[in-house]
Amino acid sequence: MALSSRGAGDDDRTGRHTGTVCALLASHNRRVHTLACLQALQASRGLRGLGLSAVLVDDGSTDGTADAVLAAFPWVQVIRADGSLYWCRAMHRAFAHALRESHAHYLWLNDDTVVSPDALATLLATARERRGALGHPVIIAGSTADPTSGRPSYGGGVRAVRWRLTSWQQLPPADRPQRVEVMDGNLVLIPAETAERVGNLDPVFEHAMGDYDYALRAQRQGVQVWLAPGVLAQCATNPQAGSFHDQQLAAGRRWRALVDRKGLPWRSWLHFTRRHTGPWWPLYFAWPYLRVLLGRPARAAQKA
Question: Which fold has domain 3-234?
């Protein structure tokens, strides 16, 4: 089922849902946030001739998220999981489901991200303009701002120091599209031709790193990654307090936060460094763990 101004979901002869944008979300016990996110997406404007659908993987919520979404938004498909997936693997499952339906565009959307009414139209217009001007498949990321501070929270980044292969500097939003190397998965538009070329998120990543990995893999396959103009959504910045970046934590707690699935689990980090840092990968792999053991800030697949 799709929400549409013209009956989107109508298929062309290839079986693709022509003009349909399918949003992909993962949620775990954030019912209020998830409902607000979908309400804002439903209020998107400037989409005449486009259909809007969504796939939500509810990863073991116990707060009634899945039932509340089904009751409020019948155009959203809900896949229930057991709580073991976390962000990247839940998004992989949502993406796999949507890819089987062959939509024209896919939208990664964090369930705590509240888009502006014009956000989706801006992403689509930027994708058309960049694709037409350059002749390359594209990915378009959107910048978000923290609702409390108003400061940029998520978006896209470029490498600030050439030899630091796992550290990127976040670009502030501008009034024009900007080329980036990596993007946060909070708000990302992926046209069908890009999805067909790059494929799905890699489920080897347990929680984080899958979005950065996708951007880096895409560029190796001739896809350009761009940051759309302006701030397109609100999304609170994850606090560093209590994370492995928090140098005030006792050494044991900081180490446990580092190797936790929401930190820098070694299997995911091993895969990332082997794939993206060349023959020096053992050094890049070991470095953040050594820095935490020494009580220093960790640098690992992050914005500088």
Answer: Spore Coat Polysaccharide Biosynthesis Protein SpsA; Chain A (3.90.550)
